[in-house]
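Shipment paperwork, digital attachment
Item: protein structure file
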Amino acid sequence: MPELPEVEALAHHLRTHAIGRTVARVDIASLSVLKTYSPQWTELHGREVTAVSRHGKHLDLVCADLHFIVHLARAGWLRWSDTLAAAPPKQGRGPLALRMHLGPPGEGPGFDLTEAGTKKGLAVWLVHDPTEVASIARLGPDALTVDRAGLGVLLQGRTERLKWLLTDQSVLAGVGNAYSDEVLHLARLSPFAVAGKLAEEAVDRLHEALHEILTDAVRRSVGQDAARLKGEKRSGLRVHARTGLPCPVCADTVREVSFADKAFQYCATCQTGGKPLADRRLSRLIK
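Attachment content:
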C-alpha cells in the first residue's frame, strides 16, 4: 500500500511535470472509482493544473477551483507517461481505472490510475474543497510534521496498542502497515505497547524514529521515477515483509503476527525483551 513517502514522491513528480498543463480529457475505465457525481468529471476539461498537494495518503491535483483527489488504497498506483494513447480505453478491461490527458490525446503527457487484484479500493473525488472528502476531513496531524509535544498530546490517555494507533489516520495521517513496523523497530517498542502508558523517554524514541524513518523514506523516494518507487520502498525496509530473515540490528530472526488478511513484522530481541508475540489477542506483552 502506498504510504506517506510514496504519495509525497508522486505529488512531487506531478508538481514537476503536471503544473501549468491543461487537462485535455479524462477517460473513465472503471465507473466505480468515482466517489462523487457533482461536479461532473468532464468539468476538468480545459482547466489548468495549478498545484499538487498531499493530505495524509491522499493526492490532491488542484485544477483552478476544483480538487481532483486520489486515494490509491491497497493496490492502486499512478503511472505517468510522456505520451498517452489517443483512443479511449474500454471500460472494465484490465487494471486501468482512469486516464488523464494533460495535452492533446495521442501527443501529450498524462497519467493512468491503475489497480491490481480483485479487491478494489482505489477512489477518486472531484470537489471544490478537500474537506468535502470524509476521509480527509477526519485526518489527524500529518506524521511527517508532528512535533514531539504534539505526539505526546496525541498519546495521552489512549488505550490502543501502538501498532494500531500509528496506522489510525484519524490520529496520525500518512503511516500504514509497513512504516509503522519500521518506526516501532527503530524505536525499540513493542507493537502491543499501550500508547497512553509510554514513559516520556519512550515517547522521545518514538518521535525520533517516526521523523527519521519518514524523512529518510521521503528523501529516497522523491525524484525517483514513479515506476521505481515500490522497489525503492522495499529496499529501505528493515523488518517489514522480512519474516524469517535476520534483524539488521541484532541478527535475531524477524517474526510475524498475522490477523485477518494482514500481517506485521517485528524483532523480539529489539522490541519485546526477547519474548515472541504469539497472537495479538492472546499476547500479554503490552508494555
